[in-house]
Amino acid sequence: MKLRGRVSLKPKLSYTLRSWLPILQADLSSLEETLREFSKENPYIEIKSGFEKTDQKYIDIFYSNKKTSLSEIIENKNTQRKSLEEFLQEQIHPSLFPTEKSRKIAYKIIEWINEEGYFSADTKKLAEELKVKEEEIERVRQRFCYLDPPGIGAKDLKESFLFQLQDLDIEDKLYKRVKELIENLNNPEKFENKKEFQEAIKILKKFKNPPAIEFMRDSDIQVVADIFITVNDNEIEVKLNGDYYPDIVIDVKESELKEEFVKKKIKEARNLVNALNMRKETLYKLALMIVEYQYDFFLGGEIKPMKLEDMAKELEYNPSTISRAISNKYIACNRGVIPIKRFFTRALDEEVSNSAVKNFIMEVIKKEDRKKPLSDSKIVSLIEEKFNIKIGRRTVAKYRQQMNIEGSSKRKKLYALELECVF
Questions:
Q1: C-alpha separations of 358 from 362, 382, 401 in Å
Q2: Domain end (from 343, 363, 382)
Q3: Do 93 and 208 have their domain in common?
């Protein structure tokens, strides 16, 4: 198999960090607006929309080539977003829904998630249709708090925020304060004199409402892939979606070039151009590394856990820079349009991934004393001793639930039942 890139980019270091990082973090849909913010005070910069440019390009192709169907042109543009239903179905894995029954219930729940991302079914009627207990449906639905987008599958705004809170790894005190605010959404001001209030408010403001806002048909938000990855014969090809990039045009008269003010503004304009090129270069390098790590996935296999820190080290960037680079970015391949962040394992610190901790939890529980199962607090102590990291008890409980492992008291009862069955 050969890995071939279609573009060649050389590093350009004449850019300012101030402009590069926001440009790197912006998705393609908001990139033009980000560039315009930087160009507001520079009369010599003109930003030409990549979307308008691309739309006209595809119209020209359609009329100049009668053999190209309209559906093919739309497909080539690749701006269509994956449906919410498809996106959720891809996340119904045995690790979270271990039994055929739980997966069947999960798929049915997805059918009853409305456009905003809320669960809209009558649980009683749904239970009758599936011939299961209402409690079973509710138990499976609660696991949706671990799916993307955060908050999906909740019954209302309050529960959606609680789902999104469950997805965060924050200190217990702050967690309790945010939860308190969620439970009093109509009157959060009464807590403004309490500790952690301002920090809790900042977290609340980041929550999505409604949870499926990125998938809503009437929303202006749409997924535009930054990277195209295709498999043809024995080649994997990596290509930037350059057609949708805005153009930065520097427009200045030669007679003005001697003025100091003009020189300064032209330098700023060139730095902005370099910053945009650095964005392209960084994402392209990142895509090449993803293909190298996830080679089997693009050939039909499973995604392998990747650590953001490993990628940062390989590319010689700070992990925070890579985090910005993958934020709201997508790869379009023969397996769909995939958020880049899905290829990465969330890290607990610079050395330890959550998957390593999950594996450790599973191992210590397998070897635990069945008469005295390990509490989550005890598991926290074992993790901190093993990995030399700080981790919250609630985080351990969340990982345990994701692996469908019961709490210590429930495990003790199950062990006792197993013993009775032996005799």
A1: 6, 12, 10
A2: 343
A3: yes
In one-letter notation, the amino acid at residue 124 is: K
pLDDT digits (tens, 9 = 90+) for 270-319: 888 888 888 899 999 999 999 988 888 888 777 777 778 888 888 888 88
In a domain, 237, yes or no: yes
Q: What is the total count of domains within the chain?
A: 3
pLDDT digits over 146-161, tens only? 888 889 999 998 999 9
State whether 9 and 108 are in the same domain.
no
What tens digit of pLDDT does each residue of 45-94 get? 888 876 654 443 333 333 333 333 333 333 444 433 457 888 898 888 88
DSSP 3-state of 347: strand
Question: How many other CB atoms are there within 10 angstroms of residue 408's CB atom?
Answer: 18
Residues 144 and 187 sit within 8 Å (Cβ to Cβ): no
Nearest to 280 by CA among 206, 233, 226: 226
Encode pLDDT of 100-112 as tens digits: 999 999 999 999 9
For residue 103, how many C-alpha atoms fall within 13 Å in the half-sphere facing its CB?
Answer: 12
Where does 196-329 show beta strands of DSSP type E? 227-232, 235-240, 247-250
Pairing of strands 330-333, 45-48: unpaired
In order, the DSSP letters of 104-117 are HHHHHHHHTB-TTS
Yes or no: say if 247 and 35 are a contact pair by the CB < 8 Å rule. no
Mean pLDDT (the chain) is 78
Of how many residues is the chain composed?
423
CA 55 from centroid of its chain's CA atoms: 28
Tokens of 360: 């450790």
Phi and psi dihedrals of 353, rounded to 5? -95, 160
Whether 282 and 396 share a structural domain: no
> What pTM does this model have?
0.47
